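Lab notebook page, bench 4
Experiment: in silico fold of construct C2
Operator: M.H.
Input chain length: 130 residues
Purpose: comparison with the prior construct
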Amino acid sequence: MRKSLFAVMVLALVAAFSLPVIAADAPADGLKMEQTKMPVIFNHSAHADYKCVDCHHLVDGKESFAKCSTAGCHDNFDKKDKSVHSYYKIMHDRKAADVPTCISCHNEVAGKDKDKKKELTGCKKSKCHP
């Protein structure tokens, strides 16, 4: 009986210490991207079929999980800016060059379905900007 109780206690301790490590690997839902006029709530779970590198593109040959708006990256918040530093452009560019944008990917997913296109690429009352 004592051995069983000891084994259960050990398993409980192992589980208690390993669960936070496992949970840390799962990307968070409810990520608020608030650098634009109309903030977006991004859910990683809705994009689980995609590779992380599709959005977290390579920087100096390595995948980067830094915020897009990190200084020196996409840190220009002027909607009119068209440079590689434009935060707005990396979300809204309709034609993806070497790295897909939110809109280019959503356009591809929606295809010719007008309702789905409005839902996924609309400025207001869409999945991005409810």
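Observations: The beta strands are 31-33, 40-42, 58-59, 62-63. Residues 45 and 74 are 24 Å apart (CA to CA).
Next step: discuss at group meeting.
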